[in-house]
Design a protein that fits this description.
Three copies of one chain form a homotrimer. In chain A, the strands form three sheets. Chain A has a five-stranded parallel sheet with strand order 9-8-7-10-11. The first copy, chain A, folds into two domains: 149 residues, Aspartate/ornithine carbamoyltransferase (Rossmann fold, 3-Layer(aba) Sandwich); 167 residues, Aspartate/ornithine carbamoyltransferase (Rossmann fold, 3-Layer(aba) Sandwich), CATH 3.40.50.1370. By secondary structure, chain A is an alpha/beta fold. Chain A is globular. Chains B and C meet through α2 and α13 of B and β2, β4 and α3 of C.
């Protein structure tokens, strides 16, 4: 959120500035939000925010985020407008000072400015490009939206983070492992995939777990490093909260003793320099698929994946549908954590 | 609706299990639902179901079904989320045990599982493939949804049936012919069309009319047989209710004495084996277009078509817009029957 | 709105017949509507119209119109169904008496008839073709909708007019120049653009300003004449209200003394006969881009554009973001004028 001269003053709000990665308000705020989500799931009545309006722009597909946002807003009496640029509306120019004689019909500054005139919150999904590391590290589209909006901007998965997923993850951990997550052992394991994927969800798991003081192990094959700056942030958050972050290139070792396993594919930093080579490395690591044998190394861990998942590539049917799968529960918690977040943002 | 171990228990509901073809609850339930729809149209206030949520997934285009579902839900205070896979969300894999290294990013089990976590009902439109008879006869996509959902599944037109259309048809018949439809004479006539079409609407007319005990005549050119198993079901339902089902390949004879004419094109069983031959037969039957001369054979029958209709191919403008056309009225009843159905399902 | 025999009687309504260009109800009605919009913006509570339903069909992209309509309806308790033909629903045939054996699956008469059965208002966006002047002058799609609808039709930008934009424009003028606009000096200036554009917004500015009795100057390069019949209408409206309409081909002269500048590109009448020649003329007039030098000729005028705008082609960043830009305010007023309009139409 940036206030230019031509922007109106924003409404007061229950979350500090924009929602970028979910850590903005501190560990305690996430803890409280998650407890509220669990209470809403148990039947507590959501506070109403009639007359408030949310605009949600999806530059990429969405099932869970789209439906949970819309249903959560409806439960609060809030109007949600969903927009799909390229079909519903015009393509946007993100650059400053551009002579707009090309394909993009509208500048992000104008489109977002208008949405901010009509809505109390702007929510935006904009995945990583995977070909421009600098743009992805700067979270270019989310940053452009934040710069153009006079009202809070909510990240519905950017190049770098997916905080709404993070809230549902923390809710799942607290539900199964107790409200104090300090010292609980979580393993984030890389997984195979037919396509190169962004690391936003992996980054989010990392910092969400670190902020809650968990003992985090990141397991991935060599060459699939997450961004060093984000690893550094996670280590700082963990250290502050009494936890730790470590990395291993051995999946079996990484899973040993875990209480929670989160599986996710990502293409990593070196993928930017050579996509062909990354695809070769990725194909060679097909045995990182999470199966019952892999899960047997854990301390009877719960298994998580943000979905959508490639079954029998990322994880086997038996793990996905097994007694330790928390996958569907986390997805269900997307609704209740979204409701708790927008209640806090708009009903306060 | 199938309950796997990992599924939550469903909410109680006012319709037995899923809505597949509309006959599940018996002839009396349809009769009562239709009378309620007519009362709602006359101004009765719908019972409210605040806090309930419906997810509607359209794998094919929709005008009437989409708008009537959304408007009906709004009138009940129910939230409806409309999803268009392929644009809004990811393509789904329907097969069990598949190694998902192809195009489909998400398994129907996971997508539907998630939707069932967040919604009280899942509604799905999935037309026939017209190239795989076995898959169409098994109603593959609807069946996959039912197998994956812990909440009731509502059919918004599948390969085989279109029960929401069926309710509006019965409402139209009851409005014009009286609440007791036993012995009333309905003719379902095949009609020409530039494209091969599924038989879901034709099947639905057949079983809806049969269940209400009507005297049903199916008129179609040779080679356009409906599925024998569905013809058998219709005959059983008619026999149980005191009606009958007969077939003729002579349109004039089929229309004689009819009190209701329903026109619809379908490609029929033999179309699966040879599309080119089917197109030739179809083109040769262009004189099955329903015009004033054809309607003159009836007992001053009302004319119906589910829409969309190819004017002057399926039926002439003069029939579509003539004094005996019930086409628009049936379309309008889509709203009130949808409202009555979801009221029964969610407000009870 | 046309009542055929087979159509139900429409509901009573607070606006005369359809909304085509916004002048239907007279200058006083627009004045009152705009004052109500400014009151709603200042915090007045909108009157409720629970149970009413609006169908909005977008044949072209939309950001402001789409979101303002949906948010305005939500604020009134009205249900809005948004449809995108070609993706959500079937392609429509507009011609009368056509044998529909081509691509279009549904006739506008049937589709609109159905929507009118289920909704209290039908809103439609259908831009000019730019290749068939006769069709555009007849406002073919809007006219087909009006002919097929038994309920009021609301123009969300047609080939000729954009009345919802017009209301927001008048609201902006009244807010800045006072409620009595007679004699206020407005300049509508043509602007460069990489593509040939319809003149609907330009026409709308012209007649909205003329009806309020403003002194209107239209400045455009030679060869970019607006439709003579619309110029004639504007002159008649202005004359009736005590204002005037004049044309100049010199931008500097046109801007001199203006209190409001509205910039817009359009391809004009002669573009229909030769698109290549029009593109050449358009490219040659790149210096009509509105910059600070151009604005310096005005009487410290406010600058307006309906958006989306090509920055640094139509107008420079410094004008768009400068202290005299009313662009964002007008966009924001789209919400409040839409709310005032639908309140008047549905809550009365």
């Amino acid at each position: 959120m940036t206030l230019h001269r031509w922007m109106p003053q924003p409404v007061s709000r229950g979350w500090p500035d924009d929602l970028v990665d979910g850590t903005e308000a501190g560990a305690k705020a996430v803890h409280d939000l998650v407890q509220r989500a669990l209470a809403l799931r148990a039947g507590a009545a959501p506070r109403q925010a009639h007359g408030k309006r949310v605009a949600a722009i999806f530059l990429n597909p969405s099932l869970r985020t789209r439906t949970s946002l819309c249903a959560a807003c409806h439960a609060l009496g809030v109007h949600a407008s969903v927009l799909n640029p390229g079909t519903d509306m015009w393509r946007m120019e993100m650059g400053e000072g551009v002579v707009m004689d090309g394909d993009a019909a509208e500048h992000v500054r104008d489109a977002v400015g208008v949405l901010a005139q009509m809505h109390d919150v702007i929510a935006i999904r904009a995945f990583a490009t995977l070909n421009d590391r600098k743009a992805d590290l700067a979270d270019k589209t989310l940053t452009a939206f934040r710069g153009a909006s006079a009202v809070p901007v909510v990240n519905l998965e950017s190049a770098l983070y997916h905080p709404m997923q993070g809230f549902a993850d923390v809710a799942t951990w607290q539900h199964h492992l107790g409200p104090d997550l300090r010292g609980k052992r979580l393993t984030l394991t890389w997984a195979p995939h037919p396509k190169a994927l962004p690391a936003a969800v992996a980054n989010q798991v990392l910092i969400s777990a670190a902020q809650q003081g968990m003992e985090v192990t990141v397991a991935h094959p060599e060459g699939f490093d997450l961004e060093p700056s984000i690893m550094g942030r996670a280590k700082g958050l963990a250290s502050h909260a009494g936890g730790a972050v470590r990395v291993t290139h051995n999946q079996k070792e990484g899973l040993a003793g875990a209480q929670v396993v989160v599986a996710k594919s990502w293409s990593g930093v070196s993928g930017y320099s050579d996509r062909t080579e990354e695809a070769t490395r990725r194909a060679a690591a097909a045995d990182w698929c999470v199966d019952d044998t892999a899960m047997a190394h854990t301390a009877d861990a719960g298994f998580m994946h943000c979905l959508p998942v490639r079954r029998n590539v990322v994880a086997t049917d038996s793990v996905m549908d097994g007694p330790n799968s928390w996958v569907q529960e986390t997805a269900g918690l997307r609704l209740w954590t979204a409701m708790a977040f927008f209640e806090r943002l708009l009903a306060s």
